[in-house]
Amino acid sequence: MALRARALYDFRSENPGEISLREHEVLSLCSEQDIEGWLEGINSRGDRGLFPASYVQVIRAPEPGPAGDGGPGVPARYANVPPGGFEPLPAAPPASFKPPPDAFQPLLQAQQTPPPSTFQPPGAGFPYGGGALQPSPQQLYGGGGGYQASQGSDDDWDDEWDDSSTVADEPGALGSGAYPDLDGSSSGGVGAAGRYRLSTRSDLSLGSRGSSAPPHHLQHHPSGAKSSATVSRNLNRFSTFVKSGGEAFVLGEASGFVKDGDKLCVVLGPYGPEWQENPYPFQCTIDDPTKQTKFKGMKSYISYKLVPTHTQVPVHRRYKHFDWLYARLAEKFPVISVPHLPEKQATGRFEEDFISKRRKGLIWWMNHMASHPVLAQCDVFQHFLTCPSSTDEKAWKQGKRKAEKDEMVGANFFLTLSTPPAAALDLQEVESKIDGFKSFTKKMDDSALQLNHTANEFARKQVTGFKKEYQKVGQSFRGLSQAFELDQQAFSAGLNQAIAFTGDAYDAIGELFADQPRQDLDPVMDLLALYQGHLANFPDIIHVQKGALTKVKESRRHVEEGKMEVQKADGIQDRCNTISFATLAEIHHFHQIRVRDFKSQMQHFLQQQIIFFQKVTQKLEEALHKYDSV
Question: What does the pLDDT read at residue 54?
Answer without folding.
Answer: 86
